[in-house]
Amino acid sequence: MVKKLNVKPCENRNLMTSDYSALSRQTALILASVLVTWCAIALGTNTAYAAVPAYPKGIWAAAGVDDDLPPGVVNNLGIVGIGVNEDWNLVNPAPGVYDWTLLDSRVAAAKAAGFRYIALAVTDSSDKTPQWLLDLLPEDQKIALLDIASQHKTFCEPIVTALYWNPVFHQARLDLIAAAGAHYTNDPAIVATNAATFANHHSNDWNIQDWVGSVQCPRCPQPPPTLCGTQIVDQVQQWMDAGWTEQQMLRVGKEICDAAAAAFPNQNIKLPIGGLTDNRMSTPDGDPAHGNYTQLARDIENYVYGNADLGIPPQPYANRFYMQRNVFTATWKNGDYYDTYTPPFEAEAYIKYMIRNHAKPANAGGLTPGQAGLQMIASATLGPTTGCRLGGGDGNGPCGPTCPPVCVMQTALDIARTYNTDFIEIFAQDAQNPDFYAMITAATIAMGGTPRGMPSPTPTPTPTPILPPPTATSGTNVTNSSFTANWTAVSGATGYSLDVSTTSDFTRYIGGYRKLDVGNVTSWSVTGLNANKTYYYRVRAYNGSTMSDNSNVITVTTARN
Q1: SS3 200
Q2: Cα–Cα distances in Å, from 285 out to 143, 282, 381?
Q3: Which of 187, 220, 436, 463 could be stapled to 228 by a disulfide with Cβ–Cβ 3.0 to 4.6 Å?
Q4: What local confidence, expressed as pLDDT, does residue 66 receive?
Q5: Domains of the chain: which residue ranges?
Q6: How many Cβ atoms sit within 10 Å of the Cβ of residue 135?
């Protein structure tokens, strides 16, 4: 663990003149340039950023949820790079303390598997906020938003998070970015980072919760905190009551972009963009009539890349920022459609136009040719069982109501390539599907990328003695906030590693209980739990040379209050 690096945010309001319109354009640009330089120096950075390697072109994949990359992803040589991430609440377990152990192991696993290019992320989304940070904030600086996404594990649960603009929360995010940069920026294999993500509730995407309407939650009754039945939701009013303004969120975005550029001077930086569905949240001046779906995205675009028509200079790091849209489906229009049609600002299609307008070739007028990215909204492989989200979701997509994965994936890749982005990201389930290997390799080549070579042969390792997994036994001493996990001893083991999760597939862990080294014992008290909630635990044995497979999974439901 390492102590934090405390970076003071540069106040972007200091980059604004009191009467910008009264200045000549030349004078204003000179003054803005001087102030940008002063701000960068105050941050301890140099505006003359060194050139960084170009973003490797082609198809990229997520690594999945465990440290060990699935062999199917490794064997897919059309994948040029791999994305690895860890959650904020695991990386930052206490104020001023950063534990990179899990993320380091994932980076090392990617390198060991032969990946030369890595995109790094610490998911600092609202629902991954460390509990210690939430505990520091008064109640009026937090907001409880219902998770309306049925594909999430927390569907119909209120997610309590901080207001994005709260100074303590915002500074904690800036400190996290600075600490991550200090730890990883000098690793040449890490060519990109998600550090500029600022409007993210659940992941590293742009996904501000702004739903107004009803939500059909699971049938009643449900154990808390899950709500049941029909729930009427007005998340926009919740935000407005909490003090939301578009300009306040823009300031947050600007300072996070500045911090990301300063912390990661050797990396390309991804900047997810999206929209706001209600003009009350998007108005720049308080009048909803002046708001529109794309206002905040366009304002952050102007800040990073500049806008000559508005007299806004680009940031010195603009050549390293890649705007990205993370909800691509096989129903999108071809990218060149937007070469002759500009959607209105209030249309969701304008976000697609922004991606194409940056990425299209120079001879077609691209603002930053190739310099953008796309990410699939979901997995094609899982489409038939997840509502065919990548194929269109309503049964009327280009591949029809049965959603055949090969058709959906091929169609999605073909359309995504028409936007001319340097990278397209796909889900781990699709990266390891052998039915997709050929089309992914072909897409990478068509994008101007180079498929990975065959992994170098490695010497056959000396077999190590197999360590059998322990047998997990029933939990005991169950209370409303704790229980004791138990397991059998394994001959030859020198210790045990414990996982505790709120999901049976262990895709979500409770704080501190992921690969927890409990030493050479056969029981452990698991504390800090919620009443009347179901938990799952498993355990592994280890010694100096090997670790066993996972044990069986034990289910425990805590007592009621």
Answers
A1: coil
A2: 23, 9, 45
A3: 220
A4: 56
A5: 9-39, 58-135+164-208+244-446, 472-557
A6: 7
